[in-house]
Amino acid sequence: MTNITAATRKKPLLEALTWKFFDFEDYLFEKRHGLDLGGIIAANELMSSDRHPVAHASAYHAVWCRNLRELFAEAERTGAAFDNFIDLGSGKGKACFYAHMRKPFSKIVGVELSEKLNIIANHNLAKFRSGSASNIFFSSIDATEFDLPETSNLIFMFNPFDDVILRKFVSRNLEHFRKGTSMIAYANDVHRATLDELGFSTVFRNPRRKLSLHCYR
After folding, report:
1. Whose CA is closest to 76, among 154, 168, 7?
2. H-assigned helices in 114-213
3. Domain 40-216: top CATH class
4. Where are the domains of the chain?
5. Distance, CA of 184 to CA of 70 (rounded, Å)
């Protein structure tokens, strides 16, 4: 009983230390590139509450570099070649800036409904300390009205919205997924079952970190 109790206590401590390490890596990434990425902002503070999508939106919180790194590595392991990186719910732009550092995508597009966050993302873009970033674009648009580029895309989501919006986005772009090789990289993948229902298969999943990679069957 003593050993079990000790092990139980040690696990949360190790997890807390791991999170601190991830946070420190993110702090260095933000400072190194002169970016404003921090904070947690509730959805109702990001846009007018009379706009229908607000009820389906998640709060703003930047994804860990650690989780992005794992998803990129798994996407590369599939052998697929992606022309573009699309971030749905791009917030202040972190995943887009990380993608620029990671791989020479033809185009990197941040799709964000909140004009407030898009303004911050574009300010970050103006300060980004990593050479030319002319392939990064931030757009204030509803994901349900966004058409994916015709070429192959790696689409990233950090749980930006609920299953209602996810269904609408996929339904709008279903023909694209059927014809092409685009994949969805999903962090905090709480609505992954919706992707299964819509015809996607899971290429990779880390259940502990709730990270997954999906392609259309």
Report:
1. 154
2. 115-127, 163-172, 174-179, 192-197
3. alpha beta
4. 40-216
5. 14
